[in-house]
Design a protein that fits this description.
two-stranded antiparallel sheet, 145 residues, 19% strand, alpha+beta
């Protein structure tokens, strides 16, 4: 694996985790949202990660067999959670139904915070990988002087 491949892998992880953090933030911001432009309460969203090749087919053909298995990561999609909505009795709410119940998104704040901590640690690990690759490259340059 060369220097640029290590950077590409780290960069793909940073990009994917940034998207993951954005989705988690959106879920936390909409914990009590009862109206969306699509109609109805907000629905929790989550990301789907997918391993992806890093190079073009020509570059891939020119590499050795060991380096062909090196892959990065990308977000292949954002899916809407199908959990049932949480019903809360609040007859004074403008979106309450005839019985006084309001439908709210079923978002567990503790679960979202745990997901956020995992995403942050993964982001930090990818940043450390890039930093280590840069340090190794600089040390190799110093040896060549």
């Amino acid at each position: 694996m060369d220097f640029m491949t290590a950077l590409e892998i780290g960069a793909s992880g940073l990009s994917a985790e940034r998207t993951h953090l954005n989705i988690i933030s959106m879920n936390l911001a909409n914990v009590n949202t009862t109206r969306t432009p699509e109609g109805g309460p907000y629905r929790r969203k989550s990301v789907v990660f997918q391993a992806t090749p890093l190079d073009s087919p020509f570059t891939k053909a020119m590499r050795s067999e060991l380096e062909r298995e090196v892959k990065g990561v990308k977000v292949s999609g954002v899916v809407t959670d199908q959990r049932p909505l949480r019903r809360v009795y609040d007859p004074g709410h403008p979106d309450a139904d005839g019985q006084g119940y309001v439908s709210l998104p079923d978002i567990n704040v503790v679960e979202e915070m745990a997901n956020m901590m995992t995403a942050l640690r993964t982001y930090e690990a990818n940043a450390a990988t890039i930093s280590s690759a840069k340090t190794m490259f600089n040390k190799a340059l110093e040896l060549g002087r």
